[in-house]
Design goal:
The protein has about 180 residues and is mainly α. It contains 5 helices and no strands. α1 crosses α3. Keywords: Membrane, Transmembrane, Transmembrane helix.
Length: about 180
Amino acid sequence: MPEITTSRRLDQPLLGRTRFEVDPEWFARLSEKIARFLGTGRFLAIQTVVVIVWIILNLTAWIGSWDPYPFILLNLVFSTQAAYAAPLILLAQNRQDDRDRVSLEEDRARAERTKADTEYLARELAALRIAVGEVATRDYLRGELDKLCDRLGAPEPATERARGRGRTAAREAGG
């Protein structure tokens, strides 16, 4: 028996060979396109025209009556269409549910981040209000210095005395 002299080994796969690869999502995308088309008025109009032409051609027997009056073949076509349309529509709905679920999870995460940011800002604002409430203002310091000067019996500086009198007079006039 003659020996086969090929350079190819049958126990090892070919390296340079291209494989037929299929995108796993192509059928799902196709089914979504079909499901979207099935739900349009255009599809209903086309189907209505086809059914009317089918019935007219079969009743007048112009081409030969391939589907006589009870239109059993037309019913078979509708049944086949329904048998394929229902799973395609369900597949499209499942994909939409998956997209909605992902969108909902992203919305929840965004809402949690927004809530955390809002709570953080509220705490920071409260801390700033407390800190500002504890800060000594210029008027407070002047009043305390005036009280201290009165206790010590020291005369007020001339410029401060004029400001103090103006403030005192304004306070007395205002109430």
